[in-house]
What we know:
The chain is of the alpha/beta class.
Amino acid sequence: xxxxxxxxxxxxxxxxxxxxxxxxxxxxxxxxxxxxxxxxxxxxxxxxxxxxxxxxxxxxxxxxxxxxxxxxxxxxxxxxxxxxxxxxxxxxxxxxxxxxxxxxxxxxxxxxxxxxxxxxxxxxxxxxxxxxxxxxxxxxxxxxxxxxxxxxxxxxxxxxxxxxxxxxxxxxxxxxxxxxxxxxxxxxxxxxxxxxxxxxxxxxxxxxxxxxxxxxxxxxxxxxxxxxxxxxxxxxxxxxxxxxxxxxxxxxxxxxxxxxxxxxxxxxxxxxxxxxxxxxxxxxxxxxxxxxxxxxxxxxxxxxxxxxxxxxxxxxxxxxxxxxxxxxxxxxxxxxxxxxxxxxxx
Length: 346
């Protein structure tokens, strides 16, 4: 047993230090990024904010709406091949640039993603998602996926430390999902005691990935637009959102009414709700590691997206970054004990 005593930070522990800027307006900030990937010849340009591959967030409807803003959606893995085919026959032209096909690491998962990709060869992105990316089985699955799909961009995770980022990139992944336990409906840290403060995880994993020519996705922990900006400032190439995009028309789940208010159900993909729905219940060898909550219905996602993009643009103006890719170079974080004046907060 050993203890690491150096401080690890989350989003609530820091704020940006403002710097002199030549920008006159937030409208001068470009949030577009262009990426080349380690293992394929594909080049991607867009706004690198993505909806998480949860069935209450990563829906076909969400993908269409976010693609209008050049944003990205990791489509959840529970759509059937027929549903994929129906979606792609009606989706806007070029949607393949803004979506990923998600998969777990089971044999059935692999068969299904092969069927989807082989039927729709224009799809470019695959997201291999497990809660624990540290297993040898996961690394072997990434290698197998690279052999099967040599011309696709592969996202894989989740991990929180540099050495595992490097291993997964060398195994064939292009982009590594970073985050264990920070999500709003994740209880991994409570149930297992395992985790890593998200800001420090981003800093360490980005350093490891960029050294090899890979990218990372900060997955989880963002509750407000400022957190999204902090993730980018810390070195994240993409930021994945779950709870911030839940509760909208484009999110999964039915609208329910309670005490005169409308709500939508939102749950973690390791929750009892998700496992009851997709796996016939919680297996007798494991515990549920997710919450189920009722999110107040928020209408169309358009205004939430505008709030997020506007917040990140504003961050860039405060530190003098005219492009999103400059933000991390212009970032100095200061340690804080307080984020906001909450005197008028319920």
